[in-house]
Amino acid sequence: MDQQSDSLFSFSERARQLTSSAIREILKVTERPEIISFAGGLPAPEGFPVQAVQAAYDRVLSTAGRNALQYGPTEGYAPLRAWVAEHLSAQGAQVSPAQVLILSGSQQGLDLLGKVLIDPGSKVLVETPSYLGALQSFSLYQPRFKAVPSDEGGLLPQALTPELAADARFLYALPNFQNPTGRTLDLARRHALVQAAARLGLPLVEDDPYGELRYAGEPLPGLLALAGQAGANVVRLGSFSKVLSPGLRLGYLCAAPALIDKLVQAKQATDLHTASLTQMAVYEIVKDGFLAEHMPRVRERYRLQCEYMLQALSEHFPAQASWTVPQGGMFIWVTLPAHIDTTRLLAQAIERGVAFVPGAPFYAGGQAAHNTLRLSFVTVPQEKIRAGVQVLGELIAAYR
Ligand code: N5F
Questions:
Q1: Is the model's pLDDT at 124 over the cut of 60?
Q2: Considering Cα of 134, then 136, then 137, then 140, what sign does the dihedral take?
Q3: Are residues 221 and 259 in the same domain?
Q4: How many angstroms is it from 56 CA to the middle of ligand 1?
């Protein structure tokens, strides 16, 4: 098939460099029902508010059906933009609706940012490791990734030297329960990061799909909320995927109006606008405070699942393995003894009916740690978490 399409089309330079996301590839395998998958960051379907979504679609269609089925503005449905602005303002940022762009999933925001901010060869700063879907989106625009040093507490703001930041288009950062490591940037580092960014004139892209999923520790202000005082330029991405459902494909971006204008032009060329019906239905759901009653249930479920996996890891993984203990979100990051290559381990694990995401594709602009892997603990039922972790423990012990 590939050979045939190669001779049928002359692919662009950009397309030639495209590779498939490791997560999406693994998800194909893990669709088999017998597989215990710790791979995809798929929210637990038990948490999907099916009835609320159904009722909202019904209400929208019966009260404003013709509007909902019509084209709409590229910027997004005005009441939803206003809700997002208010939601972010309640978290300490000062945001007006004009600074909000509604997206078809926050992944679209990553692509649009790449489109309007990255030229071939542009320097883009990333954490080590970082969300591989963002690396994939940005890669289409052929940047030069530079890794910002980090430790178990996340990004090291003092590592942002003038030399590292010089000419960088932006720094892509995930302060809450980072994908893939689950780690969280503490308050002191958040302050130091926005101050360094302001001093260096470096835009920060704050991606926060998991922020509402905190089940331990105190909530911390986001980079956008801290930006005002420091005078930093922060672009914030948010998503309804992890609070309502990813199948809705709805997210948003908040930025200075000058960037919103450019992104709107790029979005016009991409999809004209995000589905009107979806935006109106989601607005119906969130406008009266549904999330305040819904999120505690989701958080409690994730807390228990996380605890369960941590327990299974300490029972079944060897003493030389270490892992992160997240305060929220969906991921645990495991570091195995240096001789273990987790890409090879994955092939063996799939034969035994267990999947995870190997660590290597999460690295850009620096050395990859091939002995790392990401485990998602939210979709697998508790008894299967134990069974899956046990299999991985056996394979690690037998690895040669
Ligand atoms: O808002 P949405 O659903 O487009 O989320 C994209 C996204 C953006 N930023 C970060 C840090 C994310 O983690 C995500 C979603 N990540 C999932 C993951 O497992 O890493 C996506 C898995 C689903 C898939 O690739 O099919």
A1: yes
A2: positive
A3: yes
A4: 24
Whether the ω angle into residue 221 lies within 30 degrees of 0, i.e. cis, is no
Ligand 1 centroid to Cα of residue 70, in Å, is 28
Indicate whether 54 belongs to any domain. no
**Domain harbouring 371, CATH code:** 3.90.1150.10
pLDDT given for residue 363 in this prediction: 95
- Per-residue pLDDT, averaged over 211-217, amounts to 97
Alpha carbon distance 399, 356 (integer Å): 16
26, 101, 107, 207, best to mutate for ligand 1 pocket (most atoms within 8 Å of CB): 107
Question: 260: number of CA atoms within 13 Å, CB side?
Answer: 22
Pocket of ligand 1 (CB under 6 A): 21, 23-24, 27, 40-41, 105-107, 131, 133, 174, 179, 207, 209, 239, 241, 246, 251
Ligand 1 atom index nearest CA of 239: 1
Query: Tokens for 119?
Result: 């030229």
Last residue of a domain, one of 269, 289, 309: 289
Residue 1's pLDDT band (boundaries 50, 70, 90)? Answer: very low
Q: Are residues 353 and 269 both part of a single domain?
A: no
Cα–ligand 1 centroid distance for 322 (angstroms): 25
pLDDT higher than 90, residue 29: no
Q: Give the CATH number, domain containing residue 248.
A: 3.40.640.10
Q: Return the pLDDT at 177.
A: 98
Decide which of 234, 255, 289 is a domain's last residue. Answer: 289
Mean pLDDT of 240-250: 97
- Tell how far the Cα of 133 is from the centroid of ligand 1, in angstroms: 7
> For residue 77, which of 261, 254, 275 has the smallest C-alpha distance?
275
**Structural domain harbouring 24:** 3-49+292-398
